[in-house]
Specification:
Number of domains: 1
CATH class: Mainly Alpha
CATH topology: MetI-like fold
Strand content: under 5%
CATH architecture: Orthogonal Bundle
CATH superfamily: MetI-like
Number of helices: 8
Helix content: over 70%
Order of helices and strands: HHHHHHHH
């Protein structure tokens, strides 16, 4: 390929990385808010969180992108640029899957830990922050890693809006070269490299979080100087 076509592909890589970053932030926020809400003591909170989860898990991400980009503007009188439309659709969709990861990890914590917090008169927020989340978050990392890879692959769906991501840029190069095998092989390799780097990053985060679980902070004991002639040895 010529340098101009490579520049087009690199711009597509940058757009894909930006979309992945913003949509993963939104998906993570939704995952924790909805996942924690699904363990709430009030049934109405659990119902609303469960309803959201079932709706977004049961609909197509592609159709959701269409809905956000084409249906919302005439309904509400404002238009989202493709980047934010893709971020909203992907973040809400994959956040619904992530909420199940959070809910499952929280409910897997030993109930005795929760009862200990109640015995210590901790508030629900204190039990969540000091007991449940420190133990549950490290267990969330492997499934969240898989979900992040799925989100990376899902970013290719935004090309239907004409957004210049990696998939859209690759298709333009294919049309310019009239060659499919070469460009799509390059696209597969680029997606693989990004996914591999994300996997290594998540594994490093998992090791770091698990390293501190169950370890009490070490306290330094100061040496006591005994006066001479006190009889203490």
């Amino acid at each position: 390929m010529t340098s101009g076509l490579w520049e087009l592909v690199l711009r597509g890589v940058w757009v894909t990385i930006q979309l992945l970053f913003f949509s993963s932030l939104l998906a993570a926020a939704v995952s924790f808010v909805v996942g924690i809400a699904r363990t709430h003591r009030l049934w109405i909170v659990r119902f609303l969180a469960g309803f959201y989860t079932e709706v977004f898990r049961g609909t197509s991400a592609l159709v959701m992108i269409f809905w956000v980009f084409f249906v919302l503007p005439p309904a509400f009188g404002w238009q989202l640029v493709p980047m934010w439309a893709g971020t909203l659709a992907l973040g809400l969709t994959y956040g619904a899957y992530g909420s199940e990861i959070v809910r499952g990890a929280l409910t897997a914590v030993d109930p005795a830990q929760q009862e200990g917090g109640i015995a210590l008169s901790f508030t629900p927020w204190q039990r969540m922050r000091l007991i449940l989340l420190p133990q549950a978050v490290p267990e969330m990392i492997p499934p969240f890693s898989n979900l992040l890879i799925e989100l990376l692959k899902g970013t290719a769906l935004v090309s239907i809006m004409g957004m210049g991501d990696l998939a859209f840029s690759g298709n333009l190069v294919r049309l310019a070269l009239q060659e499919s095998a070469e460009i799509y092989t390059y696209l597969l390799l680029i997606y693989f490299v990004i996914a591999f780097l994300l996997t290594r990053m998540m594994r490093g985060l998992e090791k770091k979080l698990k390293a501190g679980v169950g370890k009490a902070p070490q306290k330094k004991v100061a040496a006591v100087r005994v006066p001479e002639g006190s009889g203490v040895r």
